[in-house]
Amino acid sequence: MKRIIMHIDVNNAFLSWTAVDLLSKGYKVDIRKIEAVIGGDESKRHGIVLAKSPVAKKRGVKTAETLMSARRKCHNLKIFPPNFKLYKMMSNAVFSIIRKYSPDIEIISIDECFLDYTNVYKMYGDPIKFAYHLKDEIYNTLKFTVNIGIANNKLCAKMASDFKKPNRVHTLFEYEVIDKIYPLPIGDLYGIGKSSSAKLIELGINTIGDLANADEQVLRKTFKNQTSYIINKARGIDNSPVNTEEEERKCISNSTTFSYNLTNTVTIYKNLQALVENVCRSLRSEKKYALVVSVTIRDKQFHTYSKQRKLENATDNPDEIFKEIKKLFDSVWDEEPIRLLGVGLSQLTNERKRQLSLFEQSEEVEQISELDKVIDKLKEQYGSSIIQKASLVDNNVKKKYE
DNA sequence: TCTGGGGTCCTAGGACCC
DNA sequence: TCTGGGGTCCTAGGACCC
After folding, report:
1. Which residue, A105, A240, A279, A379, has most beta carbons within 10 Å?
2. CA–C1' span, A346 to C10, in Å?
3. Strand B contact with A47 (CB < 7 A)
4. Which residues are CB-neighbours of A388 under 8 A, at least 6 positions away?
5. Domain A18-83 architecture
6. What is the reported pTM?
7. Which nucleotides of chain C have an atom under 7 angstroms from any protein CB?
8. A250-401 belongs to which CATH class?
9. The domain A5-13+85-178: what is its CATH number?
């Protein structure tokens, strides 16, 4: 028997969620119905579009474009700041409605998930009727709309939910693939971005159908061993299972774009240290240890480069990680003014796997870790400003005078 | 003109070993 | 003077997604 998979996607999630929040606070305008976007603070150089209203979209506003450019397209554009705490709450609310019907869901981002309907088919019946019911229940309960795509695999369910928006249910069953997606431009295929579509168009492949019928040997020169994978995607073939288990995190990172470019090493180190503290907090909350640490630098020309190093032993110790980060930074920075700094941890393990040297006391290592855990607890209860390492108590962190 | 932040996965080249 | 081939690990960077 064929699987039945649904993909549930909140329409313009950040903007819808902010709209609902504003209306609940007495705001008179539904920002979904005007030229509006959710965007960062331009004075902090975070000035890009995170989400757009359908009206703004009609005027050509695209996600991730600059607010400056969006304003040129919409002369009455209203810009609202993001509220990630609110978004997390809204996200949890929608997933818990879906989870009432089946535990077989895979959450793939803050605003979308897959539901494997196969096992509950007998219980709830016709998937299309069910999808309409679910969509309406979400709207009636939470006051925002979703799109639902129904198909025989995840890829097609995802493609289907991306058809006409908002507030729609679409199907893309195996027998509908040729009619419904073969005519679409190649860039509409999930996983084919700007770079790959440019290469494909160069090869005369303009639609998903062109790719589905392409000569594998010809594509192999460009796409190597990804070739049959992307051709299968164009044909709507995807056997990946709905992954109910929460995936273990594979990396943790934190980065900041500064209001002003940094050149002063004292300020740079303080910011690197703050980034290290952040990633280490996440690391400890996951009860993991990192084997690889990396630093990323973006300079004022927007050139981005990085350096990483594998450690002898996995660690969650911020001082140890900061020492490495500082070394990596010193070895790679070319003294160009810095726009962004990032710190990353990867190859995460569940054990410290630490081979103690002869003179190292195991209790000492434990104590450091225990102290950090206590600090985390305090921060959790009283907010992150309650306690800071002495070296971080300095207003200069993230406030630049350069 | 201006361009966020957090992820995952893949490739390519060099080092190193047998 | 001419110089194998695999295999694995590490690092840098790019592509793609939301």
Report:
1. A279
2. 13
3. yes
4. none
5. 3-Layer(aba) Sandwich (3.40)
6. 0.89
7. 10-18
8. alpha beta
9. 3.30.70.270
> Taking Cα atoms as reference points, which of A316, A309, A283 lies closest to residue A294?
A309
Question: Which residues of A are identified as catalytic?
Answer: 112
Gap from A292 CA to B14 C1', Å: 19
- Strand B and A308 CB separated by under 7 Å: no
Distance A298 CA to B18 C1' (A): 41
Q: Name the architecture of domain A185-234.
A: Orthogonal Bundle (1.10)
Which residue is the nearest neighbor of B4, CA to C1'?
Answer: A46
How is chain A split into domains, by residue range?
5-13+85-178, 18-83, 185-234, 250-401
Output the distance from A223 CA to C7 C1' rounded to whole Å.
Answer: 23
Distance A334 CA to B13 C1' (A): 23
Nucleotide B5's nearest residue (CA vs C1') is A255
Chain B nucleotides covered by protein, CB below 7 Å? 1-12
Q: Which residue bears the tokens 């032993």?
A: A313
- Tell me the two tokens of residue A279: 């990633």
Residue that is written with structure tokens 């295929």 in the block:
A189
Assess whether the previous peptide bond of A54 is cis (omega < 30° from 0): no
| Same topology between domain A185-234 and domain A250-401 | no
pLDDT tens for chain A, residues 1 to 402? 899 999 999 999 999 999 999 999 999 999 999 999 999 999 999 999 999 999 999 999 999 999 999 999 999 999 999 999 999 999 999 999 999 999 999 999 999 999 999 999 999 999 999 999 999 999 999 999 999 999 999 999 999 999 999 999 999 999 999 999 999 999 999 999 999 999 999 999 999 999 999 999 999 989 988 999 999 999 999 999 999 999 999 999 999 999 999 999 999 999 999 999 999 999 999 999 999 999 999 999 999 999 999 999 999 999 999 999 999 999 999 999 999 999 999 999 999 864 444 334 444 444 455 566 666 666 655 555 555 555 444 444 443 333
Name every residue whose Cβ is closer than 8 Å to that of residue A358 and which is 6 or more positions away in sequence. Answer: none
**Could you check: is the Cβ of residue A143 within 7 Å of any atom of nucleic acid strand B?**
no
- The secondary structure of A190-253 as a DSSP string is TT--HHHHHHHHHTT--BHHHHHTS-HHHHHHHHGGGHHHHHHHHTT---PPP--SPPPP-EEE
Q: Which residue has the tokens 């009860």?
A: A287
